[in-house]
């Protein structure tokens, strides 16, 4: 059963600025206490203003280890790839050592080979300090879609291949729910009225991919009023 803390903001700008303060606080604390900050970045449009805002901050970038929640299998450097978006808005503008950025690379072997390679990459990586996630209009999160495999069992691989996601990006790789759960903090960023039907299903306790993310500490959902709906 998921424990969710819903933080409702007037608009998306407030969601992003609260998320930015949260990331800065958790990153600073992780750097101070453990000398490393392991963060998982979400794809999609919603977090892009957050990434741009983070790029303006003076943080302990040497401590950052950056992973990705999912990837769309597009040719390397494609502007719609999640790593491409994060790079354009954030990673290309801060001095995180390149060896500490771990993109999901969908090469010739397609999603299966990429998922296996990313699972191997994550073997031995301890719990993440922070996982950022989004919510799709159908309730998906990362690239875990309704009706697909979510990898909730502890025997699930860390990364799953996805070959039948809704168009336009059918082939993808996603961290499994099980691996996303291994995190000190999980924060969903949700903005816009189009998300309200999925949020309503989520709040009513229906099983959607987002509700399958169950880290020990629970999840925080930073959401604007339009997406949340009436209290
Ligand atoms: C992706 C994602 C996906 C995303 C949601 C929300 O690659 O598409 O990682 O899970 O976070 O679809 O996307 P938006 O923020 O664009 O609404």
Topology diagram in text:
Layout: E1 4-9, H1 12-34, E2 37-41, H2 48-54, E3 64-68, E4 70-72, H3 82-89, H4 110-122, E5 128-133, E6 159-162, E7 172-175, H5 177-181, E8 183-190, H6 196-203, E9 219-224, H7 225-228
Parallel strand pairs: 1-9, 2-3, 2-5, 5-8, 8-9
Antiparallel strand pairs: 4-7, 6-7
The structure holds 6-phosphogluconic acid.
User: Major sheet: order of its strands?
Assistant: 1-9-8-5-2-3
* Mean model confidence by pLDDT: 96
Please bin the fraction of helical residues: 25-40%
Order of helices and strands: EHEHEEHHEEEHEHEH
> Count of helical segments?
7
Please write the CATH class name. Answer: Alpha Beta
Q: Please tell me what the overall shape is.
A: globular
Tell me which CATH architecture applies here.
3-Layer(aba) Sandwich
Distinct small molecules bound, one entry per kind: 6-phosphogluconic acid
Roughly how many Å apart are the termini?
Answer: 21 Å
Number of domains: 1
Keyword list:
single chain; 231 residues; alpha/beta; Rossmann fold; six-stranded parallel beta sheet; three-stranded antiparallel beta sheet; 9 strands; binds 6-phosphogluconic acid
